[in-house]
Amino acid sequence: MTVDAITAPAGRKPLIYSLFLQVLLALALGVVLGMAAPGFSAQLKVLSDGFLKLISMIVAPIVFCVVVNGIAGVGDLRKVGRVGVKALIYFEVVTTVALALGLLLALLAGPGHGMNVDASKLDAGAMGSYADNAHKLQGAGVGSFILNIIPTTSIDALARNDVLQVLFFAILFGTSLALVGGEKAERISSFVDAVATILFKTMSLIVRLAPLGVLGAVAYTVGKYGVGSLQQLVSLVALYYAAVAAFVIVVLGGIMAAAGMNIFRFLAYLRAELAIVLATASSDAVLPQVMRKLEHLGVRKSVVGLVIPTGYSFNLDAFSIYLTLAVVFIAQATNTPLSLGDLLLVLGVSLLTSKGAHGVPGSAIVILAATLNTIPSIPAIGLVLVLSVDWFIGMARAVGNLVGNCVATVVIAAWEGDLDRPRAAKVLGESGDMAD
């Protein structure tokens, strides 16, 4: 769905204009191409990479404009602070539940039992730079992580597309704008709002290329790995997909129900974005578009601007499930016994390492390696076991993270009274019929 389609009057459009349908067709074509011409298909990754780069090009400036405009528009800085605190508390509680779920499912299902892998015979070279990055991350500590939130310069943060640093600067700038007030602040606010409008128009043009990005990603995956590439670790992959689905429907669905909303209607409203994320294995691909759709749903712009960008680093629900699930899977596969103390250590370490994973190259593998390096009883080399299926797991991981952040935004807005409930009910009621 383009931004124009989101804000257009309700009405039927030819089915071919549906972004959701276009993405599904691209998915099917990608599978066919990957099976029929694997060599050629592997080269189509340039389409996916190009689409993601186009999206990344405008993510940082959009986050900056939306956050600044949102804070300046609220005026009440105490309210901004209250929303931020509520968001962080919510993130911590829900990601802890996700970590515990991954741990529990791994213990109950035992996907690694019976593999009997000799850790000493695993190829350490396969870990490549992941281990080096993990050691750097592990040694950085909480203090360095906090310092890393502060950009060297504001321009540097924008240039490197570091969303967390851009968010930090945007909060400072927006707060200062609100404190200055008057005609000067109004001129700057109007300018920032105008820039945001143009950037969203740019985004609506880029999103029309989503089917090409999906085609490239799927064709590359099938061409390189083959449709049977999940066979080696099918139990882990199947368990993870089931875990993410259960978490979305039961946990996030319960949270949405408490806020008076239906999770299935909400997922239907975001169906085009979820299809794009599933195919590209990247939630960055739809970040600006999702922010716009949440505003269209009736969530106040200031809440969207604060919660969504922050959640991309602090509210990684599906990643949290994967982290504890994979750690215990590796222990089981290598016949490493885990005591209650070891399990508590896994949970405690994961609470720290699961934060700020977004934006780190190969983030899931890097964070998993850092977690394993902190738990002496589990052989870190066991990471090699999950490398071959990380892309496939990453698809569900990205979808689960996106849904978690969208639910958080809506729920926090509902708690704050910043959700237009009649509008949300109308939009979600029409979501099954509205044109993409």
From TrEMBL:
Q: Which UniProt keywords apply?
A: Cell membrane, Membrane, Symport, Transmembrane, Transmembrane helix, Transport
Q: What is this protein called?
A: C4-dicarboxylate transporter DctA
Known PROSITE patterns for this protein? Answer: NA_DICARBOXYL_SYMP_2
* UniProt xrefs under InterPro entries: Na-dicarboxylate_symporter, Na-dicarboxylate_symporter_CS, Na:dicarbo_symporter_sf
Q: Which Gene3D superfamilies match?
A: Sodium:dicarboxylate symporter (1.10.3860.10)
Topology with respect to the bilayer: Multi-pass membrane protein
Q: Which GO terms describe its biological process?
A: L-aspartate transmembrane transport
Segments forming a coiled coil: none
Q: Which Pfam families does UniProt cross-reference here?
A: SDF
The organism's taxonomy opens as: Bacteria, Pseudomonadati, Pseudomonadota, Alphaproteobacteria, Hyphomicrobiales
GO MF terms on file?
A: fumarate transmembrane transporter activity; malate:proton symporter activity; succinate transmembrane transporter activity
Its primary localisation, in coarse terms, equals membrane
Q: Which organism is it from?
A: Labrys okinawensis
Name its cellular compartments.
Cell inner membrane
